[in-house]
Amino acid sequence: MKEQIYTIPVNDAFSIDCECPLCELERKLENDSISFMLSPALMEEQNRISTNKNGFCRRHFSMLYNKRENVLGVALIIETHMQHQMAEFEKIAAKNKGGLERDLKMGSMKNLAGRVSGSSTPGTKFIDSAIEFHRSLAGRCDVCSRIERIMDRYADVILWMYFRDADFRAKVMNGKGFCLPHYKLLLESAKKYLSPVQRASFVMEMNETMASNLARILDEIQWFAQKFDYRNKDASWKNSKDAVPRAIEKFVSYNDLK
């Protein structure tokens, strides 16, 4: 099948000898997204509105800072993000101030009587709202959102190519499978984009590919452990020297293991 601009990165990733081609796609996408956030685009109004609202997760805040390419830009992002979140939190505090004041006034007398119920006072509305605010903020990240959106498109392209390009299909079936998080993404995408017949075909074939490759990794991990037995000290490591990081990747996707 003739390559299109949207199939080239997918074909490139599936040509790499790796445990999960989608990890290769996501790793590049993550690095590109960090570079984008540090570029002059970070000053554009639309991007600032988004970063003010969402901010970044722990991993991506660290990556933005550790690149040391635009520390001033990171500072400006943090400044307006912090201003936005402080304003949102102040709204919650102001809305629930009355409940806290009522709890404060009633507290000493009820404590003396031993009748305070911590789960039913007016002030708990503020606590619940504050917890939800922090939970919501912790679950948002501009880089994660961008990655999730584009990876969904990649998954759609992979499924489209799988049923239209025999060479690509063979490459997938004869590959090393996927990490479990990206296999989950493909299953979700199969449910979303494929017909029932296509879905059944894809899932059956991929289950076989995943099972055989997980068995391969297990064999390598077992031999890695057996190599520490003195009786095997002179035996070949076979393909097990890096089995531990590859096994971890199978479970959690690509990572920063050294």
* SSE succession: HHHHHHHHHHHH
Total number of helices: 12
Rg estimate, integer Å:
25 Å
- What is the count of β-strands? 0
Helical content (DSSP H or I, runs of 4+): over 70%
Task: Give the end-to-end Cα distance, rounded to a whole number of Å.
Answer: 38 Å
- Specify the structural class: mainly alpha
Overall shape: it is globular
Low-confidence stretches: none
Average pLDDT metric:
89
Largest sheet: none
Question: What would your notes on this structure say?
Answer:
There is one protein chain. The chain is an all-alpha fold. The protein has a domain at 96-138. Helices cover 71% and strands 0% of the residues. The chain is built from twelve helices and no strands. It has helices at 8-14, 21-37, 45-54, 58-66, 71-95, 97-113, 124-138, 142-162, 166-173, 180-193, 196-226, 243-252. Helix 1 (8-14) crosses helix 2 and helix 8 crosses helix 10 (180-193). The protein is globular and about 75 Å long.
What's this entry about, in short?
The protein is mainly α and 258 residues long. The protein is built from 12 helices and no strands. The longest helix has 31 residues.
Outline the secondary-structure elements.
Elements: H1 8-14, H2 21-37, H3 45-54, H4 58-66, H5 71-95, H6 97-113, H7 124-138, H8 142-162, H9 166-173, H10 180-193, H11 196-226, H12 243-252
Helix pairs in contact: 1-2, 2-8, 3-5, 5-7, 8-10, 11-12
Provide key terms for this protein.
258 residues, mainly alpha, 71% helix, 0% strand, globular
